[in-house]
Specification:
Layout: E1 7-9, H1 18-30, H2 37-46, H3 48-58, E2 63-64, E3 70-71, E4 80-81, E5 86-87, H4 89-93, E6 103-109, E7 114-118, H5 119-135, E8 143-147, H6 152-164, E9 167-171, H7 177-187, E10 191-195, E11 197-200, E12 203-206, H8 208-216, E13 223-227, E14 241-243, H9 244-249, E15 261-262, E16 266-271, E17 281-285, H10 286-300, E18 308-311, H11 318-324, E19 332-337, H12 347-354, E20 359-363, H13 364-373, H14 377-380, E21 388-392, H15 398-408, E22 413-416, E23 418-420, E24 425-429, E25 436-437, E26 443-444, E27 450-453, E28 464-469, E29 479-480, H16 487-493, E30 501-509, E31 515-520, H17 534-541, E32 547-557, E33 560-569, H18 577-590, E34 599-602, H19 616-623
Parallel strand pairs: 6-19, 8-9, 8-10, 10-13, 13-14, 18-19, 18-20, 20-21, 21-22, 33-34
Antiparallel strand pairs: 1-25, 2-5, 3-4, 5-15, 6-7, 11-12, 16-17, 17-29, 23-24, 24-26, 27-28, 28-30, 30-31, 32-33
Helix pairs in contact: 2-3, 5-6, 7-8, 13-15
Length: 651
């Protein structure tokens, strides 16, 4: 557990932040005592009608809210926020109050390609893309799918679809054909947007043959639009295809169309990782995503039109959707395509410096990798504009907090955040009113009744348990695609604790009110019947310089469960008896004797999802001789073969 007295950052003037001003305004409007964070958060979950109406107004949501904020207030699922509202997601993101010459998007590729897109050019492209989409028959409820890099055309496609009331879904171009069809095949898109090629790690990958196979496997398609990025100016073998730029240039519209739609109108289909079966198709509403992202950007991050937001993400990770919503604030978004380590591990900080980024987001694994490389960006880059650094994807260990404050920027607001694809937003995240404590996520989100429950369903503090949300919130999914009776949706989140959202994170609320994520509940270890979070072991193991990465599972063994630790060693290191002894000593003293693995095995690689998360469950299945049902969900599926029939875990 982190020491709650170790404070790494303090806000200069909490009352002057957007959240501080919001609290003061809400207190006057509703005649409430909201002078402290506990008072503000309690009001946001106890008086949700007042809170969410205030968020709508504070963030300047474009649309009509209607006369009702919340129906079926205690039903989960079943609660309805703003049931009479009319709005359009794209209209809200394009409601820029500045001039058309202001820069909306900055794109940077690992190849060195870079360009800027003004607000005027963005709106024009959206308008012309809508005319192209309409030519293919795209209308409200139709699906538009994109297999694209994180580049401006992808955002244009999303905004064009949302403006017309279509449903948008995306993945990154490194997915294999089966992985794409496992996702898009379920939602039967009318239009597919693809790229001609993409770059990663110094290599260019042509995708047009892949697009042909995908198009052949999607009989619902009326057409394919290809952005020839890094490829020849030709559609190649793809059927029903035309080039993106040529199609848009043939149109003459300048003003986008924004259909007024219900708050609960479907906006996105996001997919679970799918490593244990077919990916779940999670349907998110326009109003829920808009309101939650507005709250998180404006209140929790303090993002304004004067800021520049850069979150390193692919289009297959929900942080892309979160990033894109930053347009609503008028901020400039930075998009990056490629490897964060090419040509060197400092490349993302090159972008942060060049673009004067104020809010930079990345993964905890990237921060760990920088630490292992011994990089000190504060010594090599001008980071004076950077105010906030966000981390997610996996738990940021206390040593990661130390590294950020020491090697990146000592006065940066370090915000570890956690939520996920399931809600396309956060349960717990940064807070500009509170200190940052070593190893802790600062607080639950406003409007989120986040608690930690034990097995008996009682809330606990200073004790590990299940992360739950006990009251409905707008970003709950509409449901799953092709799940008409909501059976799979209810089973996923509401079966463990009826009428309570059970998220599946093994976590802890601290005495200071912060949160620590210890790993996924389904990946927790149970040696001797005691639950252990995998993050606790990773924190200890990765302190040894000989280890670059680790993965731990529980192996069924002789009627119990034993802990097996796999380690990737640094160059020229070997897993000697001495190193094993030091690893076990570190784990025993830093965690507990129960955390000490029964077996330690060196491996060459660790399988991970497309968004960079390690996949304990897939390795556990391989070790137990079970089929991994969706290898296509992995970035490096060949790594799974390293875990078959390992002699060290057969005895």
């Amino acid at each position: 557990m982190s020491d709650p007295n170790t404070v790494l950052w303090l806000p200069d003037d909490p009352a002057a932040t957007p959240m501080g001003r919001f609290a003061a305004g809400a207190a006057a409007r509703w005649t409430r005592q909201l002078g402290t964070w506990p008072q503000l958060h309690a009001w946001s979950v106890d008086h949700r009608e007042e809170f969410w109406q205030s968020v709508w107004d504070e963030c300047g949501i474009v649309g009509t809210p209607g006369g009702t904020v919340l129906e079926n207030a205690d039903a989960m699922p079943g609660a309805r926020f703003f049931p009479d509202a009319q709005l359009n997601f794209a209209e809200n993101l394009l409601a820029h109050a500045g001039t058309d010459e202001d820069v909306a998007l900055v794109f940077r590729s690992e190849t060195g390609d870079a360009w800027r897109v003004t607000w005027g050019a963005l709106k024009q492209d959206v308008a012309r893309a809508q005319q192209v989409f309409a030519r293919y028959g795209v209308g409200p409820g139709d699906r538009v799918a994109a297999m694209m890099p994180n580049m401006p055309e992808t955002i244009v496609a999303m905004l064009a679809a949302a403006g017309l009331g279509a449903v948008f879904s995306s993945c990154s171009p490194d997915f294999g054909v089966k992985g794409v069809l496992d996702r898009f095949g379920q939602i039967e898109p009318k239009l597919l947007i693809g790229c001609g090629a993409y770059a990663y790690g110094g290599k260019t990958h042509d995708t047009r043959n892949k697009l042909r196979e995908i198009a052949d496997g999607l009989p619902s398609l009326a057409g394919v639009l290809i952005v020839p990025y890094l490829a020849e100016e030709a559609v190649g073998p793809v059927p029903k295809a035309e080039l993106w730029r040529e199609a848009l240039d043939a149109e003459d519209a300048d003003t986008p169309t924004f259909l007024p739609l219900p708050f609960s109108h479907p906006l996105y289909v996001l997919f679970s990782s799918g490593t244990t079966g077919a990916p779940k198709c999670i349907v998110h509403s326009a109003g829920g995503a808009l309101l939650h992202h507005a709250k998180e950007h404006r209140l929790h991050c303090g993002l304004t039109a004067d800021d520049t937001l850069f979150y390193f993400s692919t289009c297959g990770w929900m942080m892309w959707n979160w990033l894109v919503s930053g347009l609503r604030t008028g901020a400039t978004l930075v998009l990056f395509d490629g490897s964060p380590f090419h040509p060197g591990p400092e490349v993302l900080f090159d972008v942060v410096q060049q673009q004067r980024v104020t809010h930079f987001g990345t993964s905890a694994k990237y921060i760990d990798a920088l630490n292992n490389e011994g990089l000190r960006p504060r010594d090599t880059h001008d980071l004076s504009a950077l105010r906030m650094l966000l981390s997610t994807g996996s738990p940021l260990v206390p040593e990661g907090f130390d590294y950020v404050m020491d090697a990146i920027k000592p006065d940066v607001h370090l915000a570890s955040i956690a939520g996920g694809t399931d809600i396309v937003s956060c349960f717990v995240l940064g807070n500009p009113l509170l200190p940052v404590r070593r190893g802790e996520i600062q607080a639950a989100g406003l409007g989120m009744a986040t608690q930690i429950w034990n097995h008996g369903g009682q809330p606990v503090v200073n004790e590990k348990g299940e992360l739950v949300c006990v009251r409905p919130f707008p970003a709950m999914p509409i449901g799953f695609w092709n799940d008409d009776d909501d059976a799979r949706y209810r089973a996923a989140y509401f079966e463990r604790f009826p009428n309570v959202w059970h998220h599946g994170d093994f976590a802890e609320e601290t005495v200071a009110g912060g949160f620590i994520i210890h790993g996924r509940s389904d990946a927790t270890l149970n040696p001797g019947g005691v639950r252990i979070g995998t993050a606790e072991i990773y924190r200890q193991v990765e302190q040894l310089p000989e280890v670059t990465e680790a993965l731990v599972i529980g192996q069924e063994w002789q009627g119990d469960t034993r802990v097996v630790l796999f380690v990737v060693l640094a160059t020229d290191e070997t897993l000697t008896d001495d190193l094993q002894a030091r690893l076990k000593k570190q784990i025993r003293e830093g965690a507990s004797p129960r955390h000490v693995p029964s077996r330690i095995v060196a491996v060459a690689d660790i399988p991970r999802t497309k968004s960079g998360k390690i996949t304990e469950l897939a390795v556990r299945d391989v070790v137990h001789g079970r089929e991994v049902k969706n290898r296509e969900a992995l970035a490096n599926p060949e790594a799974l073969d390293l875990y078959r029939s390992i002699p060290e875990i057969q005895t």
